[in-house]
Amino acid sequence: MNMLRGSPTRSAGVTLLEIMVVVVIIAVLISISVVSLGDNSARVLSEEARRLQTLVRLALDEATLQGREVGIAIDEESYQFQVYDEQLRSWQPLDRERIFRPRTMPSGVRMQLYLDDQQLALPVEESEIDEDADNPTPPLPTPQLLLLSSGEMTPFELRFESETTDMEITIAGHPNGGLEQSVVRN
Q1: Among 9, 52, 120, 171, which is most buried by a count of CB atoms within 10 Å?
Q2: pLDDT in tens, 43-99
Q3: Per-residue pLDDT tens for 92-137?
Q4: With the C-alpha atoms ordered 56, 181, 39, 73, is the resulting torsion angle positive or negative?
Q5: Comparing C-alpha atoms, which of 47, 72, 49, 46 is closest to residue 59?
Q6: DSSP per-residue codes, the chain
Q7: Taking the C-alpha atoms of 147, 151, 155 and 161 in order, what is their torsion angle to the nearest 10 degrees?
Q8: What's the rounded mean pLDDT across residues 152-168?
Q9: Spatial distance between the Cα atoms of 65 and 176, rounded to a whole number of angstroms
Q10: Which of 171, 148, 169, 165 is nearest to 54 (CA)?
């Protein structure tokens, strides 16, 4: 019975080995989270490019089937589909159909538009409305891309870039209505 009193007791402190194991576990968890965040921004960039490419195809089909001209107004952070109204002789929003509602890019994603290999200076999205104006609704921006009822479109190159990834996705539109996507890692 006396043996229990004489046995060595373990100290209440933390050993250096235990601290090192905890530090290694934390380092592994941090590196996994950083890698997954990088993959997430690449995934978001890819989804946005794919969404716009699909919407352009749908809008071109819509223009051809309905016999009307569709435009796409693009700024650095958003885009919106418009339809040309012959009676009003102006562009009107195509957001009556929910799928063609105006879209804003997620934070950190920017677009650059090229026509004839020249980069267009895209307007920055304006979120302020002049309250003193007679018409508080801002005028629609003029579309840079046209999707014609003949099935043709303005040839373009639209680049999607993210601040948090080295990936760039380009959608190229051809005059005959064809679209292709390419991915470049810098």
Answers
A1: 52
A2: 888 899 999 999 999 999 989 998 999 999 999 899 999 999 888 888 988 877 788
A3: 888 777 889 999 999 888 999 999 888 887 766 554 444 555 555 5
A4: negative
A5: 72
A6: -THHHHSPPPPSS--HHHHHHHHHHHHHHHHHHHHHHHHHHHHHHHHHHHHHHHHHHHHHHHHHHHT--EEEEE-SSEEEEEEEETTTTEEEE-TTSGGG--EEPPTTEEEEEEETTEE--PPPPP----TTSSS-SPPPPPPSEEE-TTS-B--EEEEEEETT-SEEEEEEE-TTS-EEEEEEE-
A7: 60
A8: 90
A9: 16
A10: 171
- Single pTM value for the model: 0.71
Distances 139 to 40, 132, 142 between C-alpha atoms, Å:
35, 15, 9
Lowest mean pLDDT among 32-36, 121-125, 151-155, 179-183: 32-36
The ranges assigned to domains in the chain are: 16-127+138-185
**Ramachandran angles phi, psi of 37, nearest 5°:** -65, -40
CATH label, 16-127+138-185, candidates 3.40.1170.60, 3.55.40.10, 3.10.20.310, 3.40.30.10: 3.55.40.10
Whether the CA torsion 138, 104, 123, 178 is positive or negative: it is: negative
